Amino acid sequence: MNKRPIIVLVIFIIVLIIILVLLFLFYKPAKNISGNLKAQTSQTSMETKSPSKIDILKTAKYLYVFKTPFVVDLRASLPNTAPLKLRLKLSFVLENKQLANELDTKEAIIREIVSDTASTFTPSEVEGVINRDNLRNALKAKINQVLEDGKVEYVVFEGFNIDA
Prior knowledge:
The chain has 164 residues and is an alpha+beta fold. It has helices at 4-26, 30-49, 53-58, 98-105, 107-118, 129-146; strands at 62-65, 70-73, 85-94, 152-163. Strands 1, 2, 3 and 4 form a four-stranded antiparallel β-sheet that branches.
């Protein structure tokens, strides 16, 4: 009596059972896959409606760089405390080339807008990515209100330091 064919048959059955269990665990119906694909496609199309920061910076054609940094007193977090200073090195991504000339002539106005806007923030309100985006969006909105030849598409913080 030869036991070898019986051992081979048992091993074959065990391997077959393992394969079936793995298929059962990892098999997903085609409906779910297409549903997920549709959800991902609609999410992607929603994302393409408003370009991301990376897309804006990659496709930026016109960049306006302020030569001197902005120094702004932030609003004090607690009463009777000295305000901290925010040092900003700013650049703007511009909609068109003509806007650079307008920014040159309105630099004093832009500096006042940056100072007035940033001084309404406390140090904790400008820390972190989301809070910096809030400051960035506030600056962009207020600066675009005074521009006539185009719009600032994005405000770039080249330097961002809070000092005592």
